[in-house]
Every structure is written in C-alpha cells, then in structure tokens.
Amino acid sequence: EAKKEGKNDFRFFTDDLNTKMHQRLALETSLHHALENNEFLLYYQPQVDTATGEIIGMEALIRWQRADGSIVPPLAFIPSLEDSGLIVSVGEWVLETACRDAKLMSDKAGRDLTLSVNISARQFSRSDIVEHIAFILEETGLKPESLRLELTESLLMGDTESTLERLHKLKELGISLSIDDFGTGYSSLSYLKKLPISELKIDRAFVKNVPENKSDAVIVNTIITIAQCLDLNVVAEGVETEEQRQFLEKQKCPTFQGFLFSKPLPLEQFTKLLPSPAAKSQ
Ligand code: C2E
Ligand code: MG
Ligand code: MG
Ligand code: MG
C-alpha cells in the first residue's frame, strides 16, 4: 500500500515537473517573440531631490506589453530572460532606448537629468559590455556623466578580476555606478571602499516601515551615514508617504524615488512632469 502511494507521489512529482518545464519553455518562446515584435517598453520613474522635490533624474524600468494589451511586470519575466540568455539582447535594447529617451528628456528639461539603468549579472558578464555602452552613448549623444548603471550586490561580490576591470573602465568613461537594493545582499563593507561606485540605493524593504519601526529607522540611518562617510550619493527607494520623506530629509538623504512623487510612467507622461525651460524663465 505504502509502495503504491509512493509511486503515485512520484508520478505527481514528475507531472508537476513536466508542467513547470513546459511553462518555462512556453514563457521563453513568448519572450523571443516579444523581442522580435517590439513588445517591450520602458517606463520611467522620477528620482527627486528630497528637500525641494525637483526631478534630478529617472530610472528606466522595463515592461512587457502583450498582444492583448496587458502589461507584465519585470519580476514575472526577468528571471526567464536571465536563464535563457535573452537578457543580453533585451538589455541592449533597454540601454539603447533609455539613452535615446534620456537625451530627449534632458533636451526638453534644458538641463542634464541622470538616467539610471538596471544591469543584470548575465548582461554584465559579456566581454564587450564596456565597448558596447560606449558605442550606445556615442550613437545616442547622451553624455557619459548622465548615465548611471544600477548593479546588484551579488554581481559586484562575484568579484572576478574582469568585473573590477570593467567597473573601472566604465568609471573612466565618466559613467557612474550604483548599488541597487543595498542592504539586502551580502556585500561586505570593505568592498564599498574598493569598488569604484558612486551611489547606494536603499532597498524599499527598509524604507517601508520608517519612521515607526525602530530597527528599520536605524538601518536606513546607518546606510545614509556610510554613504556620507564614503562620499557616495544615496537614494531611498519606495517612498510612499510624506512621513517617510520627512524622515529621510531629516536624516539628510539627498534623493528619493517612490510612489509619493510618482509611479513609473511611459515616456510621454514622464515628460509632462518636466517643467520646460521656457516655462521656468517666465
Ligand atoms: P529595482 O531596480 O529595485 O526597481 C525599483 C522597483 O520598485 C520598481 O519595480 C518600481 O516600480 C518599484 N517602486 C518604486 N517606488 C515604489 C513605491 O513607492 N512603492 C512600491 N510598492 N514600489 C515602488 P518594477 O518596475 O516592478 O521592477 C522590479 C525590478 O525588476 C527592478 O527592481 C529591477 O531589479 C528589475 N528590472 C526592471 N527593469 C529592468 C531592466 O531594464 N533590466 C534589468 N536587468 N532589470 C530590470
Ligand atoms: Mg533599480
Ligand atoms: Mg532597487
Ligand atoms: Mg528594490
């Protein structure tokens, strides 16, 4: 009897595995088509001066608009893009599109806005990544100083010689580097000193419950202090309330990003948030 049950369990297990594998392949196939059919698009979320509310830049965030019009969020397909290697081509598209859009936005605003782009580990590992980024900057006319790459702690901690070399080359080009979701990974503080980075992004998970939650308040405060001491910029992610913004302002966090100011928006709507230079001088 027990044996019979065991067999059934095994069959259920393999059926389940088959279903998962099938779903995974189906998703990969759809993502191939998505790239071919231009179904990816970029949203932009403003990064603002905590004290004045002025927009100083934006983060490009990918979306997948399916043929039926529905919008798929990145966490539902980025892992599959990574597994299949498609992230390399999609990442190229993201960089090129975002740099072109950012050039337009800076021209419209009459000042330089900083564009932040997320780079996945697999994408960063291609050997010609630096040359590729340099080429895109040249092609789009965006200044290297206006581009900031958001890298994860795990990418940075996989500290091979080539990673470090690439980071230094990017910095030499004038591009700045940011550690995304800071505090959620395993970075050791000694790395912060060694890596040519210029910004820490405080993960949304820590910002969520400030100022009420005392340990989160201490963590946020500590990250801001580390950034100040190492002369790094710091951005708080996921700011949703005025209380959170006030807390950050008091702690001297210069920049934030979050629904309080704006959700990520399609280019056209984002552009409407930018005061035009003409309007400013009136
Ligand atoms: P991330 O880089 O940490 O981006 C911030 C995420 O927090 C975005 O989610 C943004 O919409 C969300 N967010 C910002 N402010 C708030 C807020 O006030 N409240 C809440 N609840 N959420 C807020 P999104 O757009 O779904 O992106 C999720 C993740 O997908 C990103 O996290 C990033 O890791 C990845 N991703 C997005 N676009 C790209 C891309 O072009 N390339 C790569 N490699 N990864 C990307
Ligand atoms: Mg990011
Ligand atoms: Mg982040
Ligand atoms: Mg995050």
TrEMBL record:
Domain EAL: from-to ranges: 24-278
Full protein name: EAL domain-containing protein
Organism: Geoanaerobacter pelophilus
Shown stretch of the complete protein: 587 to 868 of 868
